[in-house]
Amino acid sequence: MTGGVLPILIVLAALVPALISFALPERHARLRSIVNLSGAVLKLGLVAYLLLAVADGAAPEARLSLAPGLDLLLRVDALALLFVTLSGVLWLITTIYAIAYLGDSPNLSRFFGFFGLCVAATTGIAFSGTLITFFVFYEMLTLSTWPLVVHKQNEKSFAAGRRYLAYALPASAVLLIAIIWLESATGPVEFATGTDLSVLGETSLQMIFWLFIAGLGVKAALFPLHGWLPAAMAAPAPVSALLHAVAVVKAGAFGIIRIIYDVFGIATVSALGLATPLAILASFTILYGSVRALEQSEIKKRLAFSTVSQVSYIILGAALAGPIAAIGGLAHLVHQGLMKIALFFCAGIYAERAGIETVEALDGIGPRMPWTSVAFTLGAMGMIGIPPMAGFVSKFYLGVGAVQTGANWVVVVLATSSLLNAAYFLPLVYRIWFLPAPEDRAAPADGFERPLGLIVPAVIAAGAALAVGLMAGSPLSPLGWATLIVERDYLP
Amino acid sequence: MIASGFDITVCVLLCLCALAAVTGRDTFRAIVFFIVYGLLISVAWLRIDAIDVALAEAAIGAGLTGVLLLGAFGQMGSADTMAREPRGAVLIALVAGAGIGAAVLFAVQGLPPEGAGLTAEVLAQLEASGVGNPVTAVLLNFRGYDTLLESIVLLVALIGVWSVASETGWGERPGIVHHARAGGTLQSFGRFLPAIGLVIGAYIVWAGSSGPGGAFQGGTVLAAVAILTILAGLVDAPRVTTRWLRWALVMGPGVFLGVALLGLFGGAFLVFPQAVAYPAIVAIEIVLTASIALTLVLLVLGPPREAPQ
Amino acid sequence: MGGDPIIASWLVYGCCGAVLVGLGLFGFMRPTTTLRRVLAFNIVGSGIFLLFGATGYRVPSTGADPVPQALIITGIVVALAATALAVALMLALARVSAGRDEDA
Predict the structure, then answer these.
(1) Quick check: is C4 in a domain?
(2) Which tens digit of pLDDT belongs to each residue from A414-473?
(3) Tell me, what CATH number does C98's domain have?
(4) Contact C98 B79 (CB under 8 A)
(5) CA of B196 to nearest chain C CA: how many angstroms apart?
(6) Which residues contact A421 (CB under 8 A, 6 or more apart)?
(7) Total count of domains within chain C
């Protein structure tokens, strides 16, 4: 019980720098950077400490009762830590990248304030021990993301922001309806203790489940609720990285995992005949996202549709109702984050330093921007699923898991999707390395790959994506940790 | 420890929001801080176990008052000028604020920690009130006087608001004309949320007899629904001279007064015999909700607009 | 759970209410625009409510005292009515003085 303050401290490690950022006058750039970076480092330290404790079997929690049936509960379990570790690592490198990327542009106090709020909300989502706590942090994330999407304050970003709200707010209402419906019958839902669902009829449970999926599916960009995500590309590159890899889509996918495993339980989901339709929906989203990615000529748009596709791997893993597929899905939560953030960092560098925004403009940039291009290539290879990259590991587990549960058709989906991934990523790699550069490309005065604050995070993220694939056998790798989660909590 | 930490955090945030709302230079920003303050204070109410107040505060304090102030800011713009103040006015304000604040603070911390108030008395008499929620029992039965007068005060305030209508405005629709972007977020929500809001509002009224909720809390939610659809430009408010509107406005206090007078036959003004207490309270609550909701909508919308030339 | 509270909730919120009264009063009296005075008046009001409500929660085991709660709900609604009237008067005053400026 003594560890109860730790989850609170970890949330505060992101929240306090956010509040300080809001209060700081615009000109104190250095102080703002120091505050945000030290928050990120502090958070990582606390998370590392918790990782060791939880590996030993501890489950610290902090509870606060607001009203009868309305308990706010922060509870640390292995699944929560998987997500928190990912967001902690990525927050640090994204902060470094954002400081370099945004330089001395205006409204940075606001930017870093909401950025920190997003991370705090994501951490809260991960640690949430009750459905209500989850909802509170989920809404905090919804609202604190909007100022980031419209950060540039031009016509395009406001349109993207409106679109985001038009998707996100009805989804919140739907999610709330699902929660009220469920809790009015069962009482407060706590993830760790399980819920007695027998008081509700089969049809009610099915409807509640789909309401949950609809409410969470917007953030997870599940077809047909994904429309806001490609539009949100109007935001600056660090925000895209945050949306796609760290916070928003991951929060949706994480929520769906919680609903499947900790609210309904995978056995109930299968018994109600909900698992297969969800797996089919996820599979369709995987293929749909890939096909749409093929037809995009803008790099960021292509990456956005790739996210639509890749996040559904996580949902597919959860819906397949088998331990190995579950491990694959959980590992992909981390793997996709690392690979996608590397890709977005690189796309941001290409756009910012070389003015490259479309696929065609990439010709021959490899030798001129070697570090960025190597990182981009690693990320792309991982997305396709080429061994020994991280993406291969999770796809392999998903495939084996699907066969294990008898859903052989999933293997076809995975193979097709990998082919499509190759079809939309390999041309980029080919252009980067093998096509001649256009004559008229002028380098910025201080060289292409400057400042280091942009290049280093991209290289680290790509290196990490390679490393977690190479060292997937280690117990502290994402795959090892996902195995621990499934063994400890979800084996029937 | 966690509970105290949470309480202190909420209080510090409340004071910071109030400070920003009071001293900030930009009025728009001050109003936004005030709305945040209203939401935070409903969390404070939850923490001191006053769920009914939390409901009312979230709906009225943050919601309707916020809309009212934002609307006033929109209409005033820069026309709201500062009156000339004598030198040292800030100093006087500072001394007065700090002095009174400190005096109240001193009084609060000196209160005996075991004052149980009237809880025991209310709970002992609860069965006689006809309802299960002690707050509703106090509102509509034990201290029905206050509530009756309050519903009349609301009506009087509305008459006051209407009476400052411009000369050409009388008989027109209240409030300014609202234009929302067709298909935009506001309009979509104006269509989507009322369905949910109506259910929630009606539920809160109905639940008020046994749990947290009641006419004022539910009426506010219903009022918010109406205001949202009007702000979204989907419907326009009725003309202030509309007959049904006026009947609906006086209906709540009227029925309340009528039931109270009937009590004279049972013994005294506002006394409900135990047998009819529950139906009487529910009946009063339902008509009162409608009147309160309407009055709140019209109060927030303001006086009738000027007639088109 | 995190152990017993260090300070009773009612005392924390009661003191907070007192501070809010002071802050609101300062905002009401300092030289500022009418709209801001109306806002500050609302802060004074809610500070008093919070103070009042907190004193009704001194014995948490019996729950919050329903009598202050009922009076506060009444008060919140009346405060809204007063604010609406104040805003209407303020706007009418602005309209009248704008008309006078044009005449002059």
Answers:
(1) no
(2) 889 888 888 888 888 888 888 887 777 766 767 777 787 788 888 888 888 888 888 877
(3) 1.10.287.3510
(4) yes
(5) 23
(6) A290, A306, A309, A383, A384, A385
(7) 1
